């Protein structure tokens, strides 16, 4: 998935003036450990991990599968 070229730069070349090498589509990856939510009042401001949603979806799927298997036991 990471080797798929980003077509936006090729199609809209007038909007992207930089002549950088081929850019690839950014693929989401599950973080290795649970992302923490940064303190919104801390300076400098920190932002949550952009792939936190993937971790949350994985946890939800895992919990639902565990619940689905309970009646089989």
Written account of the structure:
The chain has helices at 7-11, 52-69. The model has no long low-confidence stretch (mean pLDDT 80). Helices cover 32% and strands 0% of the residues. It has one domain (7-72). It is an all-alpha fold and 73 residues long.
List keywords for this structure.
73 residues, 2 helices, 32% helix, flat
Helix and strand element order: HH
In what range is the share of β-strand residues?
A: under 5%
Could you tell me the mean pLDDT?
80
Helix count equals 2
Span between termini:
38 Å
Radius of gyration: 19 Å
Q: Largest sheet at a glance?
A: none
Structurally, the number of domains stands at 1
Shape: flat
Number of strands: 0
> What percent of residues adopt helix (DSSP H or I)?
25-40%
Tell me the structural class. Answer: mainly alpha
Regions with little confidence, pLDDT below 50 for 5+ residues: none
Short synopsis of the structure:
This protein is mainly α. The chain has one domain.
What is this structure's SSE topology?
Blueprint (H helix, E strand, L loop, with lengths): L6 H5 L40 H18 L4
């Amino acid at each position: 998935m990471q080797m798929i070229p980003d077509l936006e730069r090729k199609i809209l070349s007038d909007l992207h003036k930089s002549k950088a090498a081929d850019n690839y589509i950014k693929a989401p990856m599950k973080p290795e450990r649970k992302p923490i939510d940064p303190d919104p009042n801390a300076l400098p401001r920190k932002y949550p991990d952009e792939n936190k949603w993937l971790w949350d979806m994985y946890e939800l799927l895992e919990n639902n599968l565990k619940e689905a298997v309970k009646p089989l036991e």
